[in-house]
Every structure is written in structure tokens, then in C-alpha cells.
Model the fold of this input.
Amino acid sequence: MSTKQKKMITTIMIAARVLGIFLGLALLGSQHVSTAQAAEGASAPRSSVLPTGGGQALLDTSDTVILLLDHQSGLFQSVKDIDVAELRRNVVMLARLATILKIPVITTASEPNGPNGPLMPEIHQYAPHAVFVPRKGEVNAWDNEDFVKAVRATGKKTLIMAGVWTSVCVMFPALDAKAVGFKVYAVTDASGDPSEMASRTTVARFAQAGIIPTSTNAVLSETHRTWNRPEAAEIAKLYGLVSPNMAAVMESYEKAQAVIKQSK
Done:
């Protein structure tokens, strides 16, 4: 073999080794990026999920904010799909639940000084920690920069919305929030519409958009989860708001227990 051929073979071997080194580094880099992306994409374990898997599909109160939209006295006069007294009672339940479980609350009104009237006072009475964001006439709360900033400032990604009207004041911000990545629940019986038709159409549109229709009773039970908790006695009182008959059941039970104690 000539000297020239030997030099050529040596050069080829060196080039192969260099190429191997570059390929190895590239592979290591790719693995590092994949691992980093996987770590970034993996969410931290949710405290609301039990070892059994229970709670995986339910509300996580640590990642939830309640948005109460346009519950104004003037607008209540136009609600026809639910009794207004029941509607107000359900809104009060959400406010009280938020206080007991320390869930942030944001309220808003498009024009508090206009014909739609002021917000029902019970919300801030029973949820004194609630933040009120006045709007500048925007029908859709998500069009108001201050409102969206307030929602994002909570750091929560799950929104429980209720309002009057369901087909407008809840629907519009719910669609926009869902479009930018929030998980959205719409509490239909803490909301109201001018007609049954409007309400049914709204629920159908919610479902098509991936917004979750729910009820105050479901929200209460879903966040309550267990009677084995220090707030159980306070939470029990809330069931009397969403179901007055349940209040009668509890009164009967308490009376029966009192009679038993007296007879001993």
C-alpha cells in the first residue's frame, strides 16, 4: 500500500470518528431537550386527586376562581327561565361556599349606574373577599382589560361562571376564556335568561364549545367531597339553600337527636 493510500485511509478514519462524536452529541442534546419538554409539560400532582383516582375529573378548588357576572337588580326583572328568588338563593350559596373554601371571587357589571341596576348586595355580604371590577359599558366582560387582568392575576385556570343573562353575560366571556385555554364551568341555575328557549339554546352552545354546564348543587357537592373535614358543619348549611327540603330533613334529624338525648 502506498504512502498516499495510507494517508487517505487515516483521513477517512479520523473523519468517521469526528462524525461519530457529532452524532453522539446531537443525540444527547435531543434526549436532553425531550426530557426537559416532558418535565415542563408534566403537571404537578393535584392535591384534590386521591390515590384511588377519585377527583381526577372533578373541580380542584386550589385552581378555581368564581366569576359572578351582572347579577343586577334591573336584569333580574327580565329573567323568565328560573324563579328569581331561587336564582338569588343559588348565587348566595356560591358566595358563601367561596368564603368557606377560600375560593377567589370576581364580580362585575357592565354599567352599574345604568338601567340594569346595582349588583345584588348579598354577593359581597357573604363573600367579603370578592373583587369588584366595574366595566365601561362592554357587554362581554372579556372585552374589558381590567376584568381579564383580574382573572389572570388569580393564577387559576378553572373558571366557574354564573350571571344574568346566561346567553350573553355568561356565554360571551365563557367562549373567549375557553378559547385561550381556561377550563370553564357555567352554573345554569345561578344564571338566568329571558326565556326557556334562550336557556336551552345556550346550554347546547356551551356543550358544543367544550364549556361544562353545571348546577349549584353539583358545584357544592363537587367541592365539598367529604364530610370528614373541619368545614363540614358550615358546608352542611349550604345544602339547605340549594335544596330547602334538605334543610327540613336536617331539622328533623336534629330534633330527633335532641329527643333521644332527653330520654336518656
Summary: The domain at 61-224 is CATH 3.40.50.850 (Rossmann fold).
